[in-house]
Amino acid sequence: xxxxxxxxxxxxSCGSAQLIFNITRxxxxxxxxxxxxxxxxVNNVEATNINEMYVKWKLKGKDIFTxxxxxxxxxxxxxFKSTKIIPQKLLTGIASLEMDKExxxxxxxxxxxxxxxxxGETIIELKYRIVSWFSPNENIxxxxxxxxxxxxxxxxxxxxxxxxxxSLVKEKTILLFVGGLVLTIVVIVGAILFVPGExxxxxxxxxxxxxIPTVILILLQYCVFIIGxxxxxxxxxxxxxxxxxxxxxxxxxxxxVSECNPVHGPxxxxxxxxxxxxxxxxxxxxxxxxxxxxxxxxxxxAVEEPLNGMWLLQTxxxxxxxxxxxx
Length: 327
Ligand SMILES: *[C@@H]1O[C@H](CO)[C@@H](O)[C@H](O)[C@H]1NC(C)=O
Ligand SMILES: *[C@@H]1O[C@H](CO)[C@@H](O)[C@H](O)[C@H]1NC(C)=O
Ligand SMILES: *[C@@H]1O[C@H](CO)[C@@H](O)[C@H](O)[C@H]1NC(C)=O
What we know:
single chain; alpha+beta; six-stranded mixed beta sheet; 54% helix; disordered N terminus; disordered C terminus; binds 2-acetamido-2-deoxy-beta-D-glucopyranose; membrane; cell-cell adhesion mediator activity
């Protein structure tokens, strides 16, 4: 009887020589992970040679990856060509599976490890989490500032067409109008592409469409100043401020556009804010000057008109023709 008990105990202890895993219930990945690693740690590996190890990863009952240590052979499932483990790390118990994000699918993955006669398996769920590219607040500011600036620009256009109707040639108004319209449409399209969600080419293009064309605002404001109030130190200061804002936002854009986790959002946003501010100052200034200027306007305009007209026309035509090409 005694030998049998010993035998039973012996076999029981042998049976308990299972591989023990560190349990990880689930791991997450987002649009920002270029590759995905599903962890699988064996706590009590005793093998001293990789020949003794065999690893199999399964998803929904199908083998997606196997590693045969004895043959040093790896196999991949059809849609999992990028799957890999690091064989050298197997002896330390690490059988984690790595694959490209493009091939990753959410689900319950089974990691099955065999070491000579001992074996074990664990299940890890791979989940996908949607993360917004910029934070919600940043999203709002990035869209609001350019739209505000465009609206203020239309306000300037309104003042110019109403107050200086007599001195305006029709083509100039049309050019300003077309420039404003193009800008409005591009910014709206950009905002629509940009707003919903995760980092993607679509969102990056949207952001580019919002930020880059704001240079049109500077040109429109310049044209409007020339028609309305001519150039004064104050308008020059406003234009310089706006150029500064534009430079900041373009630098911010270039730093953010290739980053899945953009840290330079505030730079971009302050640039866009300055552009909108310059637009606001321009509008206020024009309103003030326009209400003071009524009496002195006709003689002044009469002198400056030919020069301004030519210059404005050239600038606007140059700009309208070359802008799409530059883009
Ligand atoms: C696995 O768990 C053990 C004990 O809880 C711990 O000491 C070890 O560091 C863990 N291994 C890994 C790779 O996390
Ligand atoms: C995704 O990337 C994050 C941050 O780099 C990392 O902590 C996480 O483990 C990755 N997820 C997976 C499943 O690889
Ligand atoms: C994975 O398994 C867990 C627990 O059994 C279950 O709640 C979950 O829905 C499964 N996930 C998928 C994607 O099948």
